What we know:
Layout: E1 3-7, H1 13-29, H2 43-54, E2 58-63, E3 68-75, H3 79-82, E4 89-97, H4 106-120, E5 125-131, H5 135-143, E6 147-154, E7 157-165
Parallel strand pairs: 4-5
Antiparallel strand pairs: 1-2, 2-3, 3-4, 5-7, 6-7
Amino acid sequence: MNIxxxxxxxxxxxxxxxxxKETAEKINKMNxxxxxxxxxPPIEKIKWVEKGIEDKEFFFIxxxxxxxxxxxxxxxxxxxxxxxxxxxAKYIHSLIVKEKxxxxxxxxKIIQEIENNAKKNNCEYLRLDAxxxxxxxxxxxxxxxxxxxxxxxxxxxxxxxxxxxxx
Length: 167
């Protein structure tokens, strides 16, 4: 399956927030205390989404026939979670694959596409974070070749920081 990344516009913000809410509900059904604030997001999270859209960092992930698979935020720098970094990297946030596509290998395919793009842009690393209360997600990233290199405590949770060196 071919996938494309389509820039999200500010008038699509509610669709993005709805995807976060649906994902939080799905995670809750799995008895994982992760992302539950997205059910009724605090203003700082709504502003975080708005800023990401304004900065052209949020993308809808679509099939070649324009079917929505989910969303992702891709950054060139991530001061909040990683601080100022010396080496060029791409940062992945908020990778959401709609529930009906779970278990089909799309998450790894999406990450591989982002990795390929990062290599073309001469990035040394691909970086992301995962809520430390979600060990299944943390293990998933480790199986994809990411190494845990630290943690970041923020008001809503503690996040494991992962990076993958690009060759």
